[in-house]
């Protein structure tokens, strides 16, 4: 129980920072969709470029985050030595990447079909290299159980990025009209998309200064034997990490190429990406859980077999994922205003995207059987299968059905690999998951969702009240079945 309390506490800190940070970052979506109309395809460009950077980030980190946790928690290894070698490897790889890409910036920009804007590509090359290197100090903060500093740096970066975006996209255009001499020496009103990348570059550079304490006091001496073992362990994680990020971004990377008219593809991609942001809560919850759960599991593995605790963690993750789903769908009448009106046509994909996020979260929970048994090659197999499914369905169906097909392709890909991981994992590392209890929650959530969608209530306030009642029914079932009020210390004080 003490272990679960520790997990809940860390998840709460990471969760608050992630939820607050993602929410603040999410405020950029209405900004982007208002200054970049859907018909311009500008938001599609942003989504497309960031999809590539997400893939490169995984390549440059090389699975060393998980490798660091695994080796730092081994009794026969020195954590500081493991950390220093992780920094040397990822830092060296990132520096090599920047050097090569800057030499061939022109051909790379043309290959990505941005020949007129190599500056976009160049800025994001530097950003992704900085972010990759910083992943290791962030992992070290998690290992040292310093979630407060972790959260503070993340929030500073996000708030700074938002302020810079507001400066370039709102304040500068206003000043350019009313007082052009004040900004005309550096501001170009036609460079709106570029300033999004400029803001990101500035904050990634500034963030490095916060890691100075985590980069000092170590002996930066490469241990070839240790690094070889870490690379050997991390390489399969890199493979399924690459394929895993492709599962999330492949549609956004190839989308413009699936249409005869590239501009039309960028327009649809912008609408799809903006609408998918409404599913933010599910992604935030999954990420917060991951930040706390990964060091928790590897740390607990040193103490012995904790399979019952892993089963409980899966159950509660699933329960609160369903609650998040019901909340987002129940308050869609309010959440839709987070994107500009000309993007609303894409809101039909929100429920589908959230379904894919639930599968992704379950798959992450299941993935620890092959990480704990050092059979990480299974992660590569699963990821390759999922990527093949998603890619094939996108190429086959998107030209006919548009972005709805992309959303369903993600559900199919994650659903298949979740099932495969469960079936094989139960043979390799059996865990007695409470499947009947989870199924009961799933059925209840499905019934409540159908009621919220099918009961016709024209009046918006009344419809929101009805949806709130349905959500409270789900919460009441959680309290009655698995989270009695007496088990919550703060509330227990008031219950006699």
Q: What share of residues is helical?
A: over 70%
Largest sheet properties: none
Q: How many separate domains make up the residues?
A: 1
Annotation, overall tally of beta strands: 0
Order of helices and strands: HHHHHHHHHHHHHHHHHHHHH
Annotation field: number of helices: 21
* Approximate strand percentage: under 5%
Question: What is the typical, i.e. mean, pLDDT?
Answer: 84
Distance between the termini: 23 Å
- Unreliable spans: 488-496
What gyration radius follows from the Cα positions, in whole Å?
23 Å
Oligomer: single chain
SSE class? mainly alpha
Shape: globular
Protein name: Oligosaccharide flippase family protein
Pfam families: Polysacc_synt
Main location: membrane
Organism: Candidatus Phocaeicola excrementipullorum
What's a concise summary of this model?
The protein has one domain (2-454). Helices cover 77% and strands 0% of the residues. With 496 residues, it is mainly α.
